[in-house]
Write a sequence for this structure.
């Protein structure tokens, strides 16, 4: 039994090593990405209202559908909320936009492609919480609404007769796409870590005399034992020959 437990633990550690860590973005990078995603969210709010009008829905219906996205857009920009809360609001807004577009289209298969695009956008946050919320939303949307109002989610008889089956099929494809996004996310994290290590190494080499291996100050001069080297600080291990 202990052998099985140890094997399971090794497999778990190996599996975690294949998955991205998450939350490695610097505040500056996260802020830029979040701002772009929020702009995309506002564009969806306006686009949904126009799409509803084109599809022949009344102004009240169009405003109602658009307001669902507006609520999340406002939450995503609220300064009192933390980083993950704002990211989660933006993610829920984007997936809600996908659900509304599917509804307004009458369940057209091509409208479901919007979910795949939004999942890709959501991975820009490189955070497990928003990513998990998005996947859960898609599954619940297809399963629950597919069972209650299948004609609003699917537009072919086979799916309307067996909504749970087709919800699983759609969920499987979303999961497959998510695996591809996760691989790209993990590779991006590894590349960022390697670049950070390389920069640290180059900075260390820049502060080292290539002839003696002693640390140098900002001017490139070797340090006397215990002498102040300016920005480089003290270097008690470096001495003049």
């Amino acid at each position: 039994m202990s052998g099985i437990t140890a094997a399971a633990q090794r497999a778990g550690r190996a599996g975690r090593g294949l998955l991205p860590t998450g939350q490695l973005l610097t505040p500056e990078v996260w802020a830029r990405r979040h701002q772009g995603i929020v702009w995309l969210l506002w564009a969806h709010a306006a686009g949904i209202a126009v799409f509803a009008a084109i599809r022949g829905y009344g102004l009240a219906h169009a405003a109602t559908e658009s307001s669902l996205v507006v609520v999340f857009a406002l939450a995503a920009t609220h300064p009192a909320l933390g980083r993950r809360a704002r990211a989660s609001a933006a993610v829920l807004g984007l997936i809600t936009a996908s659900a509304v577009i599917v509804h307004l289209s009458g369940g057209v298969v091509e409208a479901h492609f919007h979910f795949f695009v939004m999942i890709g956008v959501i991975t820009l946050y490189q955070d497990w919480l928003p990513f998990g919320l998005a996947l859960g939303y898609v599954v619940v949307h297809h399963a629950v609404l597919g069972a209650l109002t299948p004609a609003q989610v699917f537009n072919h008889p086979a799916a309307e007769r067996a909504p749970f089956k087709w919800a699983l099929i759609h969920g499987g494809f979303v999961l497959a796409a998510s695996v591809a996004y996760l691989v790209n996310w993990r590779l991006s994290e590894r590349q960022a870590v390697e670049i950070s290590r390389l920069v640290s190494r180059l900075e260390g080499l820049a502060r080292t005399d290539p002839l003696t291996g002693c640390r140098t100050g900002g001017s490139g001069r070797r340090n006397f034992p215990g002498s102040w080297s300016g920005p480089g600080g003290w270097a008690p291990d470096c001495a003049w020959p």
Observations:
- The two ends are 64 Å apart (CA to CA).
- The chain has nine helices and no strands.
- Residues 28-201 form one domain.
- The chain has one domain: 28-201.
